[in-house]
User: Fold this.
Amino acid sequence: MLSGMLDPQILLDHLGGVAHGTVLQRFGMSRPELTKAVRAGGVERLRPGLYATPDLNGDVRCAAVHGGALTCAPALRSHGIWVLSEDVRPHVWVGRRGRVHAHAECRCKSHFFRGTVAVGRVSIETALIHLHRCEGDESFFASLESALRQRKLSRAALQRVRAALPAYAQWLVDLAQRDADSGLESILRLRLHFLGLVLSTQVSIDGVGRVDFVIGERLIFEVDGKANHASNTHRHQDRVRDAAASALGYETLRFDYAQVIHDWPSVQAAILAALTRLHDHA
Assistant:
């Protein structure tokens, strides 16, 4: 293709929204054409030799200016994958010997993991590997099941992720399922797995209706979201359901999302105590 036929913005879009000038030149884009595109506002010059589209994702832009590619939880979030982390800083993969560039209002977290780094946003596969190194088993497992549920990770990619994990963590890939309904479900299932307990999800009980989770045979576990069950009507419906479940021999534990995520020891103690009571009265 002749350079005069290239549209710099379309080319950058094709390359993920950001690229080095040397890469653009290999596609036939000359320096004068890049300069002209920058002056016209169709292309943004992020730093010497690095160009982007004006509508480039903000975290990806920060990562490119910082000197690498967006990775970990922020990259997964931008791919539409559920993440446990509440860290909103851009996590930037700069490579083993990557150079970090100073830039205004930098709040980036640099990752010096080995490998060949490009600019832009890493793949879901790479982001999962980096997430495990950065945040550990639980965050990795929840995001992995989210990627599997959305069919965004092929079998081959899944095996590459497994092979890249430390040997002690590879079992997490074997435990992961493609039918987890939420990140919260993934976290609960993993935590209960460590306790030797099996979690059943979205269980229909005659006379009660559908409940979030059942642990064992007779312990109902309900988790209220931030906006759910806030009204008097919802609270009344919950009490009616809990009474109906109790009449059938079930015990109901009800928590909110924050308790499960941030106060798990208390939740775990309540679960184990309830299971003991149910067992003693069986």
